[in-house]
UniProtKB/TrEMBL annotation:
One of its GO terms (biological process) is iron-sulfur cluster assembly. InterPro entries: FSCA_dom_sf, MIP18-like, Mrp-like_CS, Mrp/NBP35_ATP-bd, NUBPL-like, P-loop_NTPase, YlxH/NBP35. Pfam families: FeS_assembly_P, ParA. Binds and transfers iron-sulfur (Fe-S) clusters to target apoproteins. Can hydrolyze ATP. This is Iron-sulfur cluster carrier protein. Residues 4-75 form the MIP18 family-like domain. Keywords: ATP-binding, Hydrolase, Iron, Iron-sulfur, Metal-binding, Nucleotide-binding. GO terms for molecular function: 4 iron, 4 sulfur cluster binding; ATP binding; ATP hydrolysis activity; ATP-dependent FeS chaperone activity; metal ion binding. ATP binds at G100, K101, G102, G103, V104, G105, K106, S107. Homodimer. In the N-terminal section; belongs to the MIP18 family. The keyword Transcription regulation does not apply.
Amino acid sequence: MPDAALLAALRTVNDPELHRDLVSLGMIERAERVGGVADVKVNLTTPACPLKATIEADVRRAVMNVEGVEDVRVEFGSQVRMPSTPPLPGVKHVVAIGSGKGGVGKSSVAANVAAALARDGAAVGLLDADVYGPSVAHMMGASAERVTATEERKMRPIERHGLKFLSMANLMPAGQALVWRGPMLHSAVNQFLKDAAWGNLDYLIVDLPPGTGDVQLSLAQTVTISGAVIVTTPQEVALIDASRAIDMFKKASVPILGVVENMSYFVAPDTGRVYDIFGRGGAVRLGGYPILGEIPLDMEVRQDADAGTPAVLSHPESPASLALTSVARNLAGRLSVQALETLPMV
Ligand SMILES: Nc1ncnc2c1ncn2[C@@H]1O[C@H](COP(=O)(O)OP(=O)(O)OP(=O)(O)O)[C@@H](O)[C@H]1O
């Protein structure tokens, strides 16, 4: 039985992003007392919660104010909330990572965000839908792997670095170019989504080709996408194309979850001096979308990708990795806020 006085105290603690109290959000799994020690278990709406430390401090403060409480133990669990209808059976969120221009680091962001979410404890899939230039397999250190079939004759995603992924690169002989037209691309995207044994996933991250084309439309027509993340570099020429990509998603009724400014700045390793090579902060001009993060230019991002392990796992403390981790958590936070709109009151 939960302790009434503890619950009353916890009703005064709001989730800082969801702006509702933890009890009415159904986040308190346990609130008990053993002698003077309060034992509280909070179920976060994502294991990649960006504000876990704040919630813990707020819970402690509120519970310590309850009469008779001398100490408090806070445990965290998590359960990712999903929209009222899942996009695919067993999959809670499909998130598209798009860009206007090629080469801005979209695949790097997709691979690192997926790896960071998985490291935080989420069940993550990564679909390389950049069929013309699939690079996810390379970045995951698995370009030589071949996709096999399950007993139900579904594609079995490859497992690496704590997540599952599928890429055209693992279906075709290495180095071959893909010359497909719209209908074939549509059926490939469809199969990657529906004829693959993804299992239960909190987040399926989809790395799209750059620009505004058939693959993007096919994805939007095949599943309900929770939202899109737009990756851009800060300079004007990239921003013009990024706003076209935003416009396309809006026309396809896909919400924009936020923008990532990649190659935002460079910190010289020898002097520590910061250079805004492409004009840091340019992404703000895209029109008020949340900036999920600014990622510096960092040699390790490229070196780690070429060595087959995302930088957030190889060099988790580097400035670029910390920025990428915070993009992943901000994204997870945005999805929780969005899912709340369909949450019943408790
Ligand atoms: N922040 C960064 N610092 C250093 N190198 C980076 C950074 N982000 C990406 N890169 C490197 O830039 C190159 C292009 O990145 P990536 O392949 O992720 O771009 P992309 O936008 O997906 O490209 P395309 O659209 O052509 O597939 C890669 O070599 C990658 O390692």
